[in-house]
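From: lab user (bench 3)
To: helpdesk
Subject: output format question, protein + iron/sulfur cluster

Hello, I'm new to running complex predictions and I'm not sure whether the block I got back is the full result or only part of it. Here's what I submitted:
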Amino acid sequence: MWSQLLTWSGREFGHLPWRKNRTLYRTLVSEIMLQQTTVSTVLQHYERFLVRFPDLQSLAKASEEELLVAWKGLGYYRRAKNLKKIAETIARDWDGKFPEQGVDLQMISGIGPYTSNALIAIGMDRPALAVDANLERVLARLHGLKTAKGPRLQKQILQLFLENKIVPERHMSFRALNEALMDLGRTICQANRVACEICPMKKSCIAHKQGKALAYPAGGDTPAKKAIEHELSLLRVIVGKPERLQAYQKEKGEWLEGQWELPTFVIETDDEKFKQYPALTKKIDVSELPTVKTGITKYSIVNYILKLSAEEWKTWKFTRETTWRDGTSAESNLSTASQKCLKKI
Ligand code: SF4
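Helpdesk reply: Thanks, we reran it on our side. This is the complete output you should expect:
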């Protein structure tokens, strides 16, 4: 069932640089780069990054500035920082060697189930499935899985995999299998477009046999969300208590015009034109602060929440005039993001 797929993938994509001279470090770098970035963009930056940081130790020792220069063009800088954090942890706590078990890999901050499975399957060529949206979709179609897309479907796929029901053959290369499924999902078996006639899996694909490829996974025909183009890290400041806090009103031409918002600063963005909030100039370690994720238009936002007393707030400079408001009352017309931050504390 799988040999045609593996042959096709090797023939079409075996040339990709992260599929040559394999090491776990090179696999880690490529996997982190390929999250949220297209193959063609990663191709322009991968080798250059590895020339600058050829191994885990060199990356662990890099300054933030060096790292960001090497990452330029790939966007989503948080991934670069994550990558460095992973390198530091492995260099410090694991004597520079990647742990081999998933449970140990996932103890490392920045490595979640997907990256852990990718390292095991692609890096170590051991049985594992790195289930992202591509694998989720392709496997739901191949096996006719009716569960709606999302965490439940991913869990179901991993469970079926453990029961040897997704891939009954255990003697194959799991590296090649994962890569081939990724290739299929990226090219022939896309979310809104399939080319079943040229698909190496068409003879065994349940969704194709039913003539319903696009119906899988369920929920897959909902309109695509607006593409996220930029990442933003914001600091949202809660001065006082939710019942009496400092807020300011958004002006004409700003996001959420007329609504009220917590004093907000930009910690980091990859959009140089972004002007909605002033930049954070105070030196603050935000790494331990609680966070809430939100999104607006083309921005994916991580909101860091800082609580201050009225006295402490007096030492801050904010470009807009703030006033006391009751953040718990509907009349306060607080933005959804500000309300989410209040709920978090
Ligand atoms: S046959 Fe069609 S639906 Fe099935 S895996 Fe191939 S492209 Fe996807």
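A quick orientation on your result: The first strand starts at residue 230 and ends at 241. Let us know if anything else is unclear.
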